[in-house]
Write a structure and sequence with these properties.
- By secondary structure, this protein is of the alpha/beta class.
- The protein has two domains: 152 residues, Rossmann fold (3-Layer(aba) Sandwich), CATH 3.40.50; 67 residues, DNA polymerase, domain 1 (Orthogonal Bundle).
- The chain is 42% helix and 11% strand.
- The chain is built from nine helices and six strands; from the N terminus they run E-H-H-H-H-H-E-H-E-H-E-H-E-E-H.
- Strands 3-2-1-4-5-6 form a six-stranded parallel β-sheet, with helices on both faces.
- The longest helix has 18 residues.
- It is globular and about 50 Å long.
């Protein structure tokens, strides 16, 4: 690795918290309440994008439209009341963030979720007090797969792209990181396979697998700054 690693940028949904299915179900129900039938599988494949990208992709409706705004708002209500209380973190989610912090690295959340949703999700992950900062869809003009959220997270971390690595779970995380010039480690726990995550420098099953590797001195070069000394 040519530059010293300074920061780790974390996606949250599907990476630290097992929430991707819940988001998809909330979208489908919100559309249905507006008499719009959308295919669950198609919506599920779009989780990881922001609502500004997902809505036109699955329904042809712009989030900025009156109808789109109403559906998006209702989706948020459904998610918070029906799904959020039942969400669980992936094993070792908080332990992974703690391991990053223990090595003197800056930890910043870089999520397409809204600021309010992100705050709640970080609490679910028990990572809300561990993160140094967080960026959400409120901090970017364009959501993933555009790089805006990643670039905003880099600014919060005061790191260059070469000084950071991102951890995510979707093809949209991979694309956003690549566009920002940031290397990305991908997790399978969000529901995508290795072919979908092509472009990641490494792929693990989830936080627990990376925590196990970080406790092991046999780490790849790109993780050398995260490895025990």
């Amino acid at each position: 690795m040519s530059a010293f690693l300074k920061a780790v940028l974390f996606d949250v949904d599907g990476t630290l918290v097992d929430s991707n299915d819940a988001h998809a179900h909330a979208w489908v129900k919100a559309f249905a309440e507006s008499s719009i039938e959308v295919d669950y599988a198609r919506v599920r494949r779009c989780i990881g994008m922001g609502g500004d990208k997902l809505m036109p992709e699955v329904s042809g409706i712009s989030e900025d439209s009156e109808r789109g705004s109403r559906i998006s708002e209702r989706r948020g209500e459904i998610f918070k009341t029906e799904f959020l209380p039942h969400l669980r973190p992936f094993p070792d989610a908080a332990a992974l963030v703690a391991a990053v912090k223990a090595r003197g690295l800056v930890a910043v959340a870089a999520s397409s979720a809204s600021r309010d949703d992100l705050r709640a999700l970080l609490k679910v992950a028990a990572a809300d007090t561990l993160m140094d900062d967080a960026t959400s869809s409120d901090d970017a003009e364009e959501s993933k797969p555009e790089p805006d959220i990643v670039l905003a997270a880099l600014k919060r971390a005061r790191a260059t792209p070469e000084e950071a690595v991102m951890i995510g779970d979707t093809p949209y995380d991979v694309a956003a990181a690549q566009k920002a010039g940031v290397r990305i480690i991908a997790f399978r726990c969000g529901g995508w396979n290795d072919a979908d995550l092509n472009g990641a420098v490494a792929i693990y099953d989830g936080p627990w697998a990376l925590v196990r590797e970080l406790a092991n001195s046999k780490t790849p070069e790109f993780l050398s700054a995260l490895s025990p000394g």
